[in-house]
User: Fold this.
Amino acid sequence: MIISRISAFISDFENLMPLFAGACALLFIIGILMLPLPYEEKQLYPKQINRSSTLDPYDRGGSPFTRATIISQYPQNSPTAGYVTTYLTPLSWFLANTTQHLGTTIVAHPGGILDEILYNTRGLDTVVEPTILFIAFAIGSYLFRRG
Amino acid sequence: MSSVGGTPLFLLEFGDIVMYFTPYTTSLFILALVFTCIVILSRPENQLDIIFGSDGYYTKETEVEELRFRRFMSIACGLACLGATVTGDVFDFTLFVSLVGITNVGIVAAVRSRHVQNAAFQYGIVALAGTVPLFGGAAIVAATNGTLSMIELSARTMSGVPLIAKALLTLGVMGEGMAPFYAAKAEMFRAPGAPYVIMCSLSSLLIFLRVVEVIITM
Assistant:
């Protein structure tokens, strides 16, 4: 009796979204009650923010023109990690050393430890992420063009 | 590494993301691969509705373009399933699962019927909301363990993955894999192009089966 009532409720797809939202809210409340969770100090991908750097908001770590040390889970799988941190052209390097303003243009210079992690050691993630975007764009454009 | 899925037969390395093929994940992988091939090769049937109590019948016209788009989405869904069934990284798994979710939205949304598109909209909202617990779970795993590799997580003697992270991950997968509920209600199985719709159900089944293995292994 109760099962047929539940299945009748679920069979209306208008009810599924509130049901899922309720489950999320319930789990989030339980999650908040379970705080604090222990934080592992030894993170695989550490991140330092250097406020005094001339590249400050976009400083991705690593020194130009030298090989950086990239901490990775399986170093033997990424033998070339750390070579592509030279994200500054000689002109940019000069500007970075003499002015405080290169931080605003650093988006044009991919590289650094962060990008080494993204493109080298965790490259598959970086491939899947734009795939999700492209698929979403394909659906959106198909529906839009069909009218 | 030995997990509920058995000992890995083969490891495929993409840097820090290591795909592992245990007997369990391999069988899921083969299932997804076979069905993707079926979707590529099969030709969707035309639908005939018989008028009850008479000899009359009518056929439903479906545009080739629509079927082509749905086939594209089904193939994308199959490829996402291939990744989700074997990946050995928690964050990569969540990415593949959200890719499965969005391709399922595409399969459902391409049908030109108001009722079906309402269902697709609702499902899209659930898939959207499902990413919050999904990625939240992966983030908690990273914060409490410092690593995302399932092989590393399973090698630890004491499981450091909190229960809430596992619960959030499961709820996220439930949100992304909710398509069969909508598909069944949206008369999708009666709509032309059946093999593409069954991809929704199969992909949901595969990611559910995989997340069970993931949370037991961690």
